[in-house]
Amino acid sequence: MQAGMIGLGRMGMNMAKRLLRAGHGLAAFNRTPAKTEELAASEGAAAASSLGELVEKLDTPRILWMMLPAGSVVDDHLSELLCLVEPGDIIVDGGNTHYKDDIRRAQTAADAGVHYLDVGTSGGVWGLEVGYCLMAGGPREAFVRAEPLLKALAPEDGYMHCGPSGAGHFVKMVHNGIEYGMMQAYAEGFGLIEASDYSETLDYSALSHLWNQGSVIRSWLLELAERAFAQDPGLKSLQGYVEDSGEGRWTVQQAVESGVSAPVLSLALMERFRSRQDNAFSDRMLAALRNQFGGHAVKKSR
């Protein structure tokens, strides 16, 4: 199957590689051509120097997959694409978009006869190796047509049609809110241990490993904690400065709009704001976990 990938950042590049290695044909465009040329040289993608050239390299009906930062960048690319594609083509937004923007953009695309899918994507820097969890929203017809690509990107049972436009990114938004809460719980727990009389005798990497052996709190995050502590037992190379990527804020805003109590998710977001004012051990662990699973930038300790 053919597809066009727009945006070769941390996620887009690895997704493009996974599709190519699964045997799909891929044309790619990136704002800076060096990454497009790298993908063409290393994996055999068809490099495009513009969106127009990208569209020309694909047979109809086309599938164009955007992996771009949320906001006006997506609107700009969608506007340009709608002047280039044809009725029946599919445009996918796989970035971290707010679901309300999807509803608006899907209608704009539909007015031009173009299908629009919002696909929440989770997997971080590990997705190339183990696959991505994909949460899709939009017309079921478009989902079915794009399904071979979803199947190639995901592990077994790793993708789902969640409902109409916006559903995919809505579910991904809540997913990330839950992620904030889980990470905060681990960070606070290890913070309590660090403040105890037993901190000097405990190997935190070994403890993370132990808790993944049949414990009710076992998880992939604990596997990443084990890895982070093995690399830096006291996390002394990091500052406890924890960014938030947007979905956590949107989840809390949605809780307010829906009148649904979500104190854990809300406080997890507030703790990230607080982390930017000091350098607590629990915050260094949060920063380490984000770096481990998503390759997110960290601030190094001075």
Please sum up the structure shown.
With 302 residues, this protein is of the alpha/beta class.
Major sheet summary line: 8 strands, mixed
| Helix-and-strand structural type | alpha/beta
Number of strands: 8
Give the overall silhouette.
globular
**Widest β-sheet, arrangement of strands:** 3-2-1-4-5-6-7-8
**Number of separate helices:** 13
Classify the beta-strand content into a percent band. 5-15%
Structure explained in plain terms:
The chain has an eight-stranded mixed β-sheet, with helices on both faces. The chain is 52% helix and 13% strand. The chain is built from 13 helices and eight strands. The chain has helices at residues 10-21, 33-43, 51-56, 72-82, 99-111, 127-130, 140-153, 167-194, 204-211, 220-231, 247-258, 263-275, 281-294; strands at 2-6, 25-29, 46-47, 63-66, 90-93, 115-122, 133-137, 159-163. It is α/β, with parallel strands linked by helices and 302 residues long. Helix 4 (72-82) links the parallel strand 4 and strand 5 (90-93). Helix 10 (220-231) packs across helix 13 (281-294).
Topology:
Layout: E1 2-6, H1 10-21, E2 25-29, H2 33-43, E3 46-47, H3 51-56, E4 63-66, H4 72-82, E5 90-93, H5 99-111, E6 115-122, H6 127-130, E7 133-137, H7 140-153, E8 159-163, H8 167-194, H9 204-211, H10 220-231, H11 247-258, H12 263-275, H13 281-294
Parallel strand pairs: 1-2, 1-4, 2-3, 4-5, 5-6, 7-8
Antiparallel strand pairs: 6-7
Q: Could you name the key traits of this structure?
A:
single chain; alpha/beta; 302 residues; 13 helices
